[in-house]
Amino acid sequence: MTSNLSEQIQQFYDASSGLWERVWGEHMHHGYYGERGDRRLDRRQAQIDLIEELLTWTGVQLSKDLNGQVSTILDVGCGIGGSSLYLAQKFNASATGITLSPVQAARATERATEAEISTFLTPEAGSMTPGPRAEFRVANALELPFADNSFDLVWTLESGEHMPDKKKFLQECYRVLAPGGALMMATWCHRPVAPPAAPLSDRERHQLMEIYKVYCLPYVISLPEYETIAREIGFQGIQVADWSTAVAPFWDLVIDSAFDPSALLGLLLSGWQTIQGALALGLMRDGYKQGLIRYGLLCGTKS
Questions:
Q1: Are 57 and 241 contacting, i.e. CB atoms less than 8 angstroms apart?
Q2: Which of 103, 143, 201, 207 lies at a C-alpha separation of 20 to 30 Å from 109?
Q3: Segment holding 56, helix H or strand E
Q4: Closest CA to 237 of 173, 299, 152, 162
Q5: CA–CA separation, 190 vs 244, rounded Å?
Q6: Pairing of strands 133-138, 151-157
Q7: Strand partners, 242
Q8: DSSP per residue over 215-240, as a string?
Q9: Region SAM motif III: what ranges (predicted)?
């Protein structure tokens, strides 16, 4: 990841994560509102439902036997540790979360302590601590600081859109997976563009560029393009799905919360970049409504 983009992403999340936690809680991702997007749920419950639905879809269950169990998890783009801690507790496993934001890594570590989840040594060093464990560090997803074959599950929830090299990102995920291990990726995409679909129009490209500028994204690609990359790398048993309808209501709820009087002061204090993000929420909402923005899922295993 280029240093300039990395710095932009770091600054964006350093500034906005505290506000997000106060308003929305620990899960910094979409919620799941039913297959047709018509379920009305508490917003935090919808985010937990998304995690559970993703686990079910991926086929990773508590009884999953990967030479014993899912015992080592890497959360790429961990935010303040929402998924990492949830998965560590669910699987009674060790979870490692990485982020570009020192603020996020520090807060995730605090949250692990508050939840009485032990910190642990890295997979290279090992740990004898029983029960769920968690560690958070600042690291670049394109240069993962872990040995080959380190993790049973690589979990990446809404971070692929930040990657300037999608192939290298998936190659790194594949490298650190143990044989038989699984990747679960959910990421922002644009609509398919391969024939018979039409190429992106000038209007669509302009809309995407506006989204990129606000949310520190280099570019996004379509789900079929991700699938092609995953196959080239060597992932087996690849599954893909488009959950755009199921998650799209999230953006109306984020817009409502951003301009609630209780959140406005925090928004103003978070700085101009965070304010720009709030003012541009409608771009994402409209992108879903127009079919331009898609919520893509991909899972696969390492043989």
A1: yes
A2: 143
A3: helix 43-58
A4: 299
A5: 11
A6: unpaired
A7: 296
A8: HT-S----HHHHHHHHHHHT-EEEEE
A9: 176-185
How many whole angstroms separate alpha carbon 165 and alpha carbon 2? 10
> 20, 28 in Cβ contact below 8 A?
yes
Q: pLDDT at position 24, please?
A: 87
Q: Cis omega before residue 145 (within 30°)?
A: no
DSSP H/E element including 186: strand 177-190
29 neighbors 47 (Cβ within 8 angstroms): yes
Per-residue model confidence as pLDDT tens digits over 251-285: 998 888 766 666 555 555 555 565 566 667 889 99
236 DSSP β-pair partners:
301
What does the pLDDT read at residue 66?
Answer: 44
State the angle between helix axes of 281-290 and 249-258 in degrees (0 to 180), rounded to the nearest 10. Answer: 160
Q: 136, 109 in Cβ contact below 8 A?
A: yes
Taking each helix axis from N to C terminus, what angle separates 272-279 and 281-290, rounded to the nearest 10 degrees? Answer: 30
Give Rg (Cα) of the chain: 18
pLDDT score at 276: 62
Contacts of 49 (CB under 8 A, 6+ apart): 31, 32, 41
Q: What is the pTM of this model?
A: 0.90
